[in-house]
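Propose amino acids for all 434 sites.
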């Protein structure tokens, strides 16, 4: 899907506008680290406090207009589209669980994969699916329930297995030809997708390879229970529908809707629930997404206030002041898109925001446009994959029933990709594009 965003006001630059983000991080992340408990401070409360603070420090508008500006961010088309995805994902996940689709798919996975390749298999499946469908959200929605079911049956840490799926999801989001981030990066830098893919491939594949080896080693002592239940093949159909239609390139909302319909037909036909039980499962799934929807709305409003007050422009202007050489220009592009993503919690919007500036920097310092596109896409995916208030992390946490912070501690692929990207800039690799 293609995302659109209004351009930022280039005349307003204000470092103080970033302080609401600091309030959020201090209240949620720092406090949780100090007391060593990530459930004492609900993330909704952290967003509420930082949102109120952001509205208070906004100047030049009446209180009513400040609230309207905040609401404008919450009602952004990208936010509303994401909420529709959350609603459909919640309804599908719960109805699939109630009719036995998750258990059937977990049993099939345990049956097909050897013990020592279980973690590596989950990672490869996440990489392949996300590469095929071009969306990390769709991959997470499809695989996290299965991964958590596998974790429960093998006595594995749920946060570890969930992180495997999230990491693999961003592998495809970064490389896929149909990903929003790939389209945005290549268009803003003026290069061909296949050239950007080649530059990206040589950075991402080594990172994925080392992480895959780690998962193989980690799985050596994993034992699949001998009493794996028989596979109910008909109940796997909803996930086959979801994965096949996603790989075929259908819109993610249509994919989830078709999956939801298939769970209802099969569930009623198999007597797992009647029509009212099906409605009840959907209702419970949608209600379960309530906190996630609230967080998404407040994050959109908060980030709009930061944008309006000049926080994004402050970052853009100050990072470009001290560039001297090509290597510095590449580091600057990486830092620009990372900070923009940190503030917008949307990797596509971050690329669209800094893309024109990144192109100007690349042209001025003779950075290969294929390399600048690769840096834009890769760094935005790295940051999007580790921030606790990103859509992907929130939905993964919601589906697995754990805190986003618990998942972040096990995100080895984004960390490996970040190291590979920094090394590629520092040591001018790959040479062809440097």
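Proposal:
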């Amino acid at each position: 899907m293609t995302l659109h965003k209004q351009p930022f006001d280039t005349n307003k630059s204000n470092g103080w506008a970033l302080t609401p983000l600091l309030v959020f991080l201090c209240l949620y992340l720092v406090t949780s680290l100090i007391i060593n408990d990530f459930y004492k401070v609900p993330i909704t409360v952290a967003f509420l406090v930082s949102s109120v603070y952001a509205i208070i420090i906004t100047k030049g508008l009446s209180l009513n207009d400040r609230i309207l500006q905040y609401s404008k961010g919450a009602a952004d088309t990208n936010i509303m589209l994401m909420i529709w995805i959350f609603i459909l994902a919640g309804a599908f996940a719960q109805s699939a669980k109630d009719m036995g689709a998750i258990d059937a798919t977990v049993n099939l996975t345990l049956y097909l994969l050897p013990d020592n390749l279980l973690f590596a298999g989950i990672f490869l499946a996440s990489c392949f699916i996300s590469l095929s469908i071009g969306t990390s959200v769709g991959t997470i929605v499809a695989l996290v329930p299965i991964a958590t079911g596998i974790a429960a049956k093998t006595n594995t840490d749920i946060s570890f297995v969930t992180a495997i799926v999230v990491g693999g999801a961003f592998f495809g989001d970064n490389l896929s030809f149909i990903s929003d981030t790939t389209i945005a990066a290549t268009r803003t830098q003026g290069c061909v997708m296949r050239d950007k893919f080649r530059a990206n491939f040589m950075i991402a594949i080594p990172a994925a390879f080392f992480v895959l080896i780690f998962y193989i080693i980690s799985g050596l002592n994993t034992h699949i229970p001998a009493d794996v239940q028989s596979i109910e093949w008909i109940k796997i159909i909803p996930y086959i529908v979801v994965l096949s239609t996603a790989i075929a390139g259908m819109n993610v909302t249509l994919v989830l809707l078709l999956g939801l319909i298939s769970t209802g037909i099969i569930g009623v036909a198999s007597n797992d629930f009647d029509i009212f039980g099906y409605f009840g499962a959907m209702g419970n799934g949608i209600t379960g997404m309530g906190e996630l929807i609230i967080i998404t709305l407040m994050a959109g409003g908060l980030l709009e206030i930061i944008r309006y007050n000049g926080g994004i422009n402050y970052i853009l202007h100050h990072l470009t002041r001290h560039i001297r050489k090509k290597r510095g220009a590449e580091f600057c592009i990486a830092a620009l898109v990372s900070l923009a993503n940190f503030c917008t919690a949307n990797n596509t919007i971050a690329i669209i925001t800094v893309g024109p500036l990144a192109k100007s920097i690349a042209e001025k310092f003779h950075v290969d446009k294929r390399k600048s596109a690769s840096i834009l896409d890769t760094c935005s995916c790295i940051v999007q994959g580790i921030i606790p208030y990103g859509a992907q992390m929130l939905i993964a946490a919601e589906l697995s029933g754990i805190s986003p912070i618990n998942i972040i501690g096990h995100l080895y692929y984004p960390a490996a990709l970040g190291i590979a990207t920094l090394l590629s800039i520092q040591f001018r690799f790959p040479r062809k594009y440097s």
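Confidence is low (pLDDT under 50) at residues 1-10. The radius of gyration is 22 Å.
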